[in-house]
Amino acid sequence: MEGEKIVSIKEYSNEEVDDDGRIKRTGNVLTATTHVITVVVGAGVLALAWAIAQLGWIAGITIMITFSSISIYTYNLIADCYRYPDPVNGKRNYTYMQAVHAYLGGTMHVFCGLIQYGKLAGLTVGYTITSSTSMVAIKKVICFHKNGHGAYCKFSNNPYIIGFGIVQIFLSQIPNFHKLTLISIIAAISSFGYALIGSGLSLVAVISGKGEPTSWSGVKVGPGLSREEKVWKILTALGNIALACTYSTVVYDIMDTLKSYPPESKQMKKANVLGIITMTTLFLLCASLGYAAFGDHTPGNILTGFGFYEPFWLVSLGNVCIIIHMVGAYQVLAQPLFRIVEMGANMKWPRSSFINKEYANKICSFSFNINMFRLIWRTIFVIMATVMAMAMPFFNEFLSLLGAFGFWPLVIFFPIQMHISQKQINRFSLKWCVLQLLSFVCFMISACAGIGAIHGICKNITKYKLFMYKQ
Fold first, then answer.
1. Which of 140, 176, 263, 286 has minimal CB crowding within 10 Å?
2. What is the DSSP-derived secondary structure letter of residue 410?
């Protein structure tokens, strides 16, 4: 079922398999929280200072806390829908799409798949852009250190994008999400590294009296910023914050690693709370200190936008941490996309040796399996993502568009509709009306953020020649 091999009871004793016949899952609250942090605490955290600068202290902090609170609520709804129809004893839904199909039917199932896997593919492009930006930033900070801050230090992103893509071609052969725990842990640790370095450098600037003036309403309209531009930047900032609060694309892949007792929904709810509180604390720390340090001149990314030049080794170390995190986070996001394609191919051609046969290999003491379909299609996917990253290397606007694209449907709409179906909430009852109002408000926010992001991309794309961008 689901295109994956279900183990035979003859091969494993009852103590070694779960209720669905698969090898017993061993994940727990800690591993789930680690996966959440790996996905959520991305390099987008370094863009949140810029977002706060556009919105101002009051709106920026309020929106960030509000989005996080809404996310805890809706992700807990998602956790309850892992099994159907009962959250504890029902049949497992291995993917978000399956849960939507079980609770909402086929049409919604297709809509969910298009949004979810489209966003996952987009995020791999975004993470490729982010990693190359950090690689170039390391080269630039060394150049500035040697030749002075006024030196011409511009370099093409393309060689670094290609290098990152080559690394991902090899890592993409990791067979499934369950094998990512070590990579996820390393990535999560590195995410704290660059967030704390960025926050620490900002704090030093504030304490030393080098901080710039800030405002409760954000960057002021004036000679360098028209009212129209201010509105567009606010909309882009909303999209950046929305992206920072989402991991819905992989939530069921995380849940499918959890052991069966305590119930998966209870474990995931704890992981949701721990992960989102951790991320919100880190977000507020990094964003607030970054804005306090740079004021109206806050760069789009406080480590790669050269708000800091010295100490050059610490800025470089922060960017190394970003690269390490992007390497792991790319795989955490890509594996669900790999999985759904391979499940579909297996179901379509169950007897094809090209699609299903594993070839055992061994290099020294390292043993691994090669599957020809997995090798070819995953390599093609990584190459396509790499080419797209070279064609459109716009960091903030791309983050905002992805955030707007997935926030409302995946974090708000589907969880609420599945919850209404699961609990059989009466139409036009008070709770139904409140939930629909929440959904509508979040839809408007996503729509506005999406419009702002598209405007920013259209504005920037006229300035650059495709594949010729230099940072």
1. 176
2. I
pLDDT value of residue 6: 43
Tokens of 469: 């961008």
- And the tokens for 235? 């909309």
Between the alpha carbon of residue 231 and those of residues 11, 45, 431, 440, 447, the distances in Å are: 62, 22, 34, 21, 14
d(CA 353, CA 199): 52
Phi, psi angle pair for 427, to nearest 5°: -65, 135
**Which residues are CB-neighbours of 224 under 8 A, at least 6 positions away?**
none
Other CB atoms within a 10 A radius of the CB of residue 375 amount to: 14
State how far the Cα of 298 lies from the Cα of 51, in Å rounded to an integer.
9
Phi-psi region at 256: left, alpha or beta (left = phi > 0; alpha = psi -120 to 50)? alpha
Helices (H), 148-226: 158-171, 181-207
pLDDT of residue 397: 66
CA angle 266, 271, 274 (to 5 degrees): 130
Query: Amino acid identity of 370?
Result: I
Query: pLDDT at position 433, please?
Result: 97
pLDDT at res. 163 = 94
Which of the residues in the chain have pLDDT under 50?
A: 1-12
Long-range pairs for 369-372 at CB < 8 Å and ≥24 separation? 369/175, 370/173, 371/175
Q: Hunting for tokens 């950046």 — which residue is that?
A: 240
Q: For residue 400, what pLDDT is reported?
A: 66
pLDDT of residue 395: 55
Q: Which residues contact 456 (CB under 8 A, 6 or more apart)?
A: 232, 236, 394, 396, 397, 400
Query: What's residue 453's pLDDT?
Result: 78
Q: Model confidence over 41-75: pLDDT tens digits?
A: 665 677 788 889 999 999 999 999 998 999 999 99
Q: What is the pLDDT of residue 4?
A: 45
Model pLDDT, residue 398:
67
The C-alpha atoms of residue 153 and residue 140 are separated, in whole angstroms, by 6
CB count in 10 Å sphere of residue 89: 9
Which residue is it, tokens 């309020």?
62
Short-list 298, 304, 300, CA closest to 136: 304
Q: What is the 3-state secondary structure (H, E, C) of 340-403?
A: HHHHHHHHHCCCCHHHHCCEEEEECCEEEEECHHHHHHHHHHHHHHHHHHHHCCCHHHHHHHHH
